[in-house]
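User: Flagellar hook-associated protein 1. Structure?
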Amino acid sequence: MSSLLSIGKSGLLAAQVGLSTTGNNITNAGVVGYSRQAAIQSDTATLDQGFGFVGTGTEVTTVRRYYDNFLAVQLRNAESNQASLDAYTKQISQIDNLLADPTAGLSPALQDFFNGVQDATSNPASAASRQAMLSTASSLASRFQGLSARLSEIASGVNGQITSNVGEINSYATQIAAINKTIAGLTTDGKAPNDMLDHRDQMLTELNKLIKTTVIPGDNNTLTVEFGTGQPLVVGGTAFQLATSNSPTDASRMTVGYQSDSGVFSALPESVLTGGQLGGLVSFRNGAMDRAQNSLGQVAAGLAVSFNAQHVLGQDQNGALGTAFFKPINAYVGVNSHNSPVSTADVSAVVTDASKLTASDYSVDYDGTNFNVTRLSDGQITQINPYPQTVPQTIDGVDYTITGAPVDKDNFLVRPTYTAADQFGVAISDRTKIALAAPIATAAPTANAGNAKISAGTVDVNYLTPGNALAAPVTLTFDKASGSLSGFPPAQDVTVTVNGVATVYPAGTPTVPYTDGAAISFGGVNFNISGTPADLDTFTIGPNVSGVGDSRNGALLAGLQTKNILDNGNATYQTTYAQMVNFVGNKAREAQISGSAADAAVAQATTQQQSVSGVNLDEEAANLLRYQQAYQASGKVMQVASTLFDVLLNLR
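Assistant: Predicted structure:
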């Protein structure tokens, strides 16, 4: 009878555990991260009764947690990618909306400015037109500065979010390390506390939404959590703390690294910060954010430099050569704070050539012997040669000047266009100093017997070389017998270009052959003489002494709007800006499409994971009935055993 009672009791206890486990599943069905559990039964040892073996009942061997590590990892990775794309999309959408705005973007301000230049060119003597040109220039500068300020605000917001994410990562790492210790202490004979395992897995899920991690199983159900290329975050019961710090070469840029107990910060390569919100923010900042800031600066610097280059070749209303119309653009130079304190090296960089300017950043490094300038967009290296310098060296449209005494491993970050939009400003405020006229004037006297004509003439940058500017008129005389011109300044070479072929006549050459329509230049002065001159016909090239109504340089300034100046002479200001807008728009669209795909991947991974670990209430309801019936049946067994025992007692 005792054997039958024991069997019934074991069944009763097993059914009770099954009911408790099922009830626990039902009450936690809505808890995020909960994995369903099941009571696993097995029979107890059987006894040899001579005629055979008779069972002694059942027991619960374990409460199993339904969990598939492969599916869990798949879901965490999908959610990490989703969080990364969501963070990226939110940020790039701000830039996309900013740049593409038809009223607040740059294109309307550029158009208004050149409309002002064209109006002033059409009315060079009009004070109102000149003042309107200055006004549109100021509006353009304000637009550049406003766009730059907004991009800086977005960048500052990214810094704040990076700092916040790092704080959350540290919090989860600390919690995971603590629960690792607890789980290890409670794990006995391979059995672990299921609810704590669920809690830890949920923290890993939340952690992966911040940064993609790799989880490595350890002893006693502990875990090692790494990110990037094996950088540790949690090892057993130890959590490694991340921190943020300003970049040593750019105080406006937040970097991520390890923080030691002594407070020493060690920056990590940004390439290891992948996945999750942090990875999305870093990817956005290093890609679309930097591209937008540098490309906007490229337009600003290109416009300022090229417009100034043409403006200084003109003549203002006071009869003086033009000065810089826009303020100079100095490249941002960041000095690595880790440079040796004994180093006195200093790098300055000024944008001088709009056509060669790129939107890339540059690293300037001293190897103990030479300074090397590395273009970060493609890794191209240019050596500063000679060093020490005698004159600045121009690299990609930027003049580099390096002074002082460097030490090995000195490092500088040069961003030629990074702050150009913010620096963009109008350098003149006096409308009379707008150089719309050309500094030279040409004439063919009416007394000439031939029909040859001389063009109005232009000047190039060589005209600004000391000694080249015309102080007095130069008179060229045609000699019919020799078919040549004479009277050129004796100290200057003369270049004659016919059908694209240039011939240089050294300074002091007495006569230069005449060719109908040939382009002639000397000392930065350029003109053409065409037609058939008569013997002793003369042509005069001299200073422009009555240029108030002249707008030849103004026409050249207005022509810059449609001239391919940027990108090695392949793009205008507007097309360069349009390319930037298209790039940002395409990236925003790519992020949206990728985000939709990521959402689908998360939904699919969630379905697969829940098919194993999720609680099915219909199934649990069936289990309740099954365990209830088992409980009742086991009770009946014990009742029968009790009745039989009473029968035996009554036999006496």
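The two ends are 16 Å apart (CA to CA). The mean pLDDT is 93.
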